[in-house]
What we know:
The protein is an alpha+beta fold. It contains 9 helices and 11 strands. Helix 4 (123-132) packs across helix 5 (134-160), helix 6 crosses helix 8 (201-213) and helix 6 (163-174) packs antiparallel against helix 9. It is globular and about 60 Å long. The model has no long low-confidence stretch (mean pLDDT 83).
Amino acid sequence: MTPPPPGPLAIPGLAADEVPLISRLPLFSNMPPAALGRLLRGATVRNLAREGTLFLQDDPADAFFVVLDGWIRLFRIGEDGGQIVIAVFTRGESFAEAAIFGSKLFPVGADAIEASRVLAVPAGPFTARLREEPDLAINIMGAMSRHLRYMVQHVEQLNLRSSAERLAAFIARLSRVEAGPDVVHLPLDKSLIAGRLAMRPETLSRNFAKLTRQGLLTVRSSEVRIADVAALRAYGEGS
């Protein structure tokens, strides 16, 4: 892992290629690096083993998180004691922001589906700096508004894109190359993938078969061989 260069986001344990990952988050978009550095002062990188617990339902909401690597699952405990999966998040996605401003308790639990790394941004220092620097608070309000629009667009895309397109976009995002062939590994149980993409498990299987017939990929167990990442991404975008 390459350490980050000296600068406002020189957080211990944060790799150089993860700095732009954080800067691109809807919550922080268009924010000057120095201001972002002040907001994230005190943030730490946490390493989680597979099935490691990040927080439990009704724990104090003392931080929000950015996934640097791996997959994090949010779940609630039902009345029968069973777990209900609420959402899953991966590299470059943030979660639990609303909890630090709202009830101050996590309404869900969170654990790692696989070995993962997350950036934990402590709530106390974060909100204190917003109170001390009104300009930062205004920036965050604007960013949260943009984040809400992004989520609305995401829901619209779920409704407008076909299930095969949603699957193609999901697989393309797992790749870290822009074009050409690649091999990725499915980090989630297929039932969780289906849930994330708003489809039934049997529909997921049919769509894997459809993308295979079209020559975009081949699947063997959890391994997916992509013929061309750019072509798969274009299919996922409906183009």
